[in-house]
Fold:
Amino acid sequence: MSQSLPHLLTSRLLLRALESDQAAVLSSLANGPKIADNTANIPSPYTLETARTFIDEMQDKYRAGDLLSLGMHLRETGELIGIVSLRLNARHHYGHLGGWVAAHCRNQGYAAEAARAVMDFGFTELGLYRVGSQCFGRNKESARVMEKIGLLYEGCMRAAFLKNGVYEDLLGFATVRNDWERLA
Structure:
């Protein structure tokens, strides 16, 4: 694995590491509507210190082979609009997709575009065999993104996650290298 976080280009996005001067923007965006509510590990409130720590640890987590996490930036303006990640399990050659898009940029295809690029990078550059993800059963938007990028629905784990005092169903989606190669 390369020592540096990659820069990935899509038709509309530049996916790259965040810089320390983006901490305030990251904090503001991550505190937006539905971000913490629809994700497993994003705290609410998402403080400036949390943002700084996240940015400071991005490179080290990638070098350790644990996590590829990149900021979603609009190619035209450079504006940060979200985060896309691939939690890595080298032993099982598995990547778990995650991410979020700022409220003002939702429903424009950015999440699918970023997730597709990171998934492709995982298969081509990181040697993954399987890429998958999960979302809460109530999060139809995330489920739609997963299906759009070619992940197949694998089932529902009922009441598998306790979020804000409520047991949430988790919907599972994944694809394996052979299926990805056929579609690519």
